[in-house]
Amino acid sequence: MASESNRGEYEFDLDIQLLTCIEMYEEARERFWTEEGAPAELGRSAVLYQNAEEIANVLQQMAQEIVLHKARSDDFDAFRCWAGEHILSDWHVKLFALAQSTNQEFARVQGNADAIDELARQKIEQLRAERANAGASFWDDIMADPDALASARPQKDSAEKLVWERLCIELASKGAKEMIPAAVNRFFVMAGLLQDIRPSARTARFLSRVARCFVWGFYPECQVMCRSALDAEFGKVVPDKMCEPGPGGRVGLYQRINGAHAQGWLSKEAKANADAVRKIGNDAIHDDPEQAQRCVEIIRKMLRVLKELDRAVRE
After folding, report:
1. Per residue in 262-287, pLDDT tens?
2. How far apart are CA 145 and CA 246, in angstroms?
3. Is 44 exposed, middle or buried (0-12, 13-18, 19+ CB in 10 A)?
4. DSSP summary character for residue 239
5. What is the CATH number of domain 194-314?
6. 4, 43, 102, 311: least buried by Cβ within 10 Å?
7. Which residues pair with 86 in a beta bridge?
8. With contact defined as beta carbons under 8 Å apart, do 266 and 305 qualify?
9. Which residues belong to CATH 1.20.120.330 in the chain?
10. What's the whole-model pTM score?
């Protein structure tokens, strides 16, 4: 083993080094927009930077409200589409418009509220006209083409790019602080759980989704995927003729579980496990304080059922 003194950058874990890189990038970005350049240019750049930070914060708050199911329809009435591409308040629109002014224009109106309002009005009209003639924007592109989401980037030094950068910083910080170490640890758990599983190709695809959801901490979604994996495997190996149809002649997971149990393919315990997974998939909840442990238990039950079903079919 190499000497401890030779560790260098290897001395710190990757997640800590990632956080350091993110912080260095964030500081350099702020300096570039707020501390460098001629006074008039600096003032205009600082306006753009500060406004982009505010907009990114608003977007994060709106997204969080939607995720937590707290958003109300009247919350969105306070925002309206500007120039066909931004969801911003009047204040944001004004600052964005000012950020598009020339150094001389900005220097002339600084400190004069009425002049600032008039310049903002002129710039808004100008930007609307330019927007109408410019064709698709970055936002239009990613909304119209989902395949572009992985690689699309706004134009360099644009207002959109500044907002995009702030959101990148926030997501990267959260990932490095909270998600990566926990995800690696959950990866080891998942690898241990999936030993000796031999599912059908279709079920394997669902198990892959189970693993991804679990590794990244999407516990309710993971439980739903567990149910889907069972549904896929039972649908593959338990024929309709083995099952007593339900209402309307339907043969679903419930009927297939009962059919496999009646055939002797599932023990009483395995049937109970299968029913538990089937039910939890219907009503997985997001606010369960013990959801991590509950999710592991659901995965275990699903895998025990799959193993027993596979063994019975092979025999």
Report:
1. 999 999 999 999 999 998 755 555 45
2. 42
3. buried
4. -
5. 1.20.120.330
6. 4
7. 82
8. yes
9. 194-314
10. 0.67
